[in-house]
Amino acid sequence: MSWTKLQFIQQAFEEIGLAHYVFDLTPEQLQSALRRMDSMMAGWNIGGVRVGYPLPGSPSASDLNADTGVPDYANEAIYSNLALRLAPSFGKSLSPQTVSNAALSYAAMVDQCVQPTPERQLGSLLPYGAGNKPWRQSGGAFYPPPDDPVDAGDDGELTLE
User: Are residues 104 and 124 in the same domain?
Assistant: First the structure.
């Protein structure tokens, strides 16, 4: 069973030194941490690091008790990097060990889930070069046009609104 968003936030606060079983976190602090975690995960998603985290359509649509569906190898990376983002807001500084663990766990997670970027294709107006004679190629002296310039990826359909 994967962690809920609240469990990630509580673990991040524990890394900061504000454990939920000692300190009472206000609902505003929890909502602020939730927005930061959602934006952090959206940034990772844009960068190609997709771990199955459910991104909300708007900040008010996110639920603290929602199950994330995140695989176990990403847990430490999420809560430790969230702690890095939350600590300055609470006037806390993290230990060097926590900062190092955040970087190492993020790198390990990236190794598991990053999809390689597609190869760049040359445009149809670029010539093969002076050493390539047109009669040696089947299509002439220019590179062929790109195959498919728009790709939605493995995680969903491309919809334009």
Answer: no
Same domain as 36, residue 105? yes
Give the DSSP letter string of 122-144. Answer: --TTSB--TTS-GGGSSS-SBPP
Nearest to 33 by CA among 21, 44, 48, 18: 18
Tokens of 123: 């445009």
pLDDT digits (tens, 9 = 90+) for 52-78: 898 888 878 888 888 998 999 999 999
Q: Is 81 exposed, middle or buried (0-12, 13-18, 19+ CB in 10 A)?
A: buried
Query: pLDDT-derived band of residue 105, with 50, 70 and 90 as boundaries?
Result: very high
Helical H segments across the chain, by residue range: 5-16, 27-46, 75-86, 96-113
